[in-house]
Amino acid sequence: MVAVGAVSDRQARLWLCTDVSGPFTVEVWTCQGEGRAAVVADRRPPEADGTMAFTLPDDASAIGPLWPATVYNFRIIVTRTGEPIGEGRFETAPPEGARSSFTFAFMSCHQPFHRDGSMHPEAARMLATLEPALEGRGVKYVLCIGDQIYADAPGASSLLRPDRERSLLEAPVNTIRARYQARYRQFWAFPEVRRLQARWPTWYIWDDHEIVNDWGARRLHQQPAWRRLFEGARGAFVDYQASRALQSGVSQPSAFHQAFGWGATATFVMDLSSQRGMREDEAQVYGDDQLAALKAFLDAQRGRDVVFVVVSVPLVYLPDWVVALGEHVPGQGATFGTRWNAAQNRRACDRLLDVLWAHQRAVSGQRLVLLSGDVHQGAALALRWPDGALAYQFVSSPVTNALQGWRERLAKRLAFSMSHVRHGAERLATVRLGCAHPGQRNPVNRLNIGVVSVKGEEDGAAIRFEILTCDEGEPGVAWVAYDSGWL
User: Fold this and answer.
1) Which of 37, 124, 201, 429 could link 141 by a cystine bridge, Cβ 3.0 to 4.6 Å?
2) Mind giving me the DSSP string for 297-316?
3) What is the pTM of this model?
4) Domain extent for 357
5) Residues 36 and 125 in one domain
6) Per-residue pLDDT tens for 239-276?
7) 71 - beta bridge partners?
8) Are 40 and 59 contained in the same domain?
9) Are 162 and 220 in contact (CB under 8 A)?
10) CA 102 to CA 262: how far, in whole Å?
11) How far is 468 from 440, CA to CA, in rounded Å?
12) CB contact set of 251 (below 8 Å; sequence gap of 6+)
């Protein structure tokens, strides 16, 4: 398997997974046929499950420079035998600051299996829809913003099933890491998933299910055995996801927040899993260093037309009274405890909103958009600060997880009905955006992917959000369940 990770206007991060020994030859050519090749040393440690990432042209100098806004094809082979590992393509970003029109996609919650482990037919149809839908809209890159695998679902094969949990918690870190690596191989075995990763630049961040459901919201997750499980899951996450954005030779950070630019837009991806944990009656959702990095990013991007901030768990979801009630339901406290408006998360929510509001007060005219997943619904909302400034929250989830229990059914009746988000003593008004066409719905209660379009204009940029889904009709055909129109 090969994949494309982070790209810029002059670089591209490629990733491979194989059990064959290197070195490897990477061949790169443009649509005009100009071809170049370089040999890349095999730097994989035994515990990395055959995975490796490298940067063009830094780690393959013979490739020479890459050029902005250029489509490249690539192939990776085993140097000594010519055996193919895989091939794909990528497009580099436009020149820094260029006001161009483009489209990207984001998605979350990939769990395509029935409870017995068989393939869910709705998930199969959605996977068949991905490639033609992204191609048809000219998508430039994809954000995968959490739950790219489930360690704990489906139930028949869960790593954390009651009869397996104890043995896993007692295992050494490398054994745990290997179990999670096998999970990636299982969830990413589908040809559609492999083509998606090989044909579009992708940025990844994890959410709770890459570790365990409601990770960090339970006090027991601070115990040594659970911290060891976290380290094993974290190692597998680096191997299969985070390495696609980390530069070669850089030590692993305490959190995997990341940022990149695309023309006149910029994106900051928060990491809400690496630093999460309980401290007495208060949860740490992110570290001080990550919040400082977000603030520094926003300060540096004041000249951009649009700023996107990926917050895997949406700020606006269930009303305060529902979350407050759910926190006291026996056995459900941790589930509701991951919501931003849970009592234990209030301070973290206020601090995040402080940074976002300060930025919007300082930069008039810039669009601020929060991108979220996690909640198994697609939705589009506007958030209005007390001074009238607007931000947006776009949600896309799930891409393949068609399983529903009582909690999902209950949530769909109450989700996104909040009239406000509390911010200290203030209230941030919220409203669901209208639909651009008759027959559409907001929120969307189907499998979906989110597509965001940016239209560059002389005096700024317009944005548009569509939620695409599929039905039981012709396989591979997407239809628009929601369209915000140009905002």
Assistant:
1) 201
2) HHHHTTT-SEEEEE-SS-SS
3) 0.96
4) 95-483
5) no
6) 999 999 987 666 788 999 999 999 999 999 999 999 99
7) 91
8) yes
9) no
10) 9
11) 11
12) none
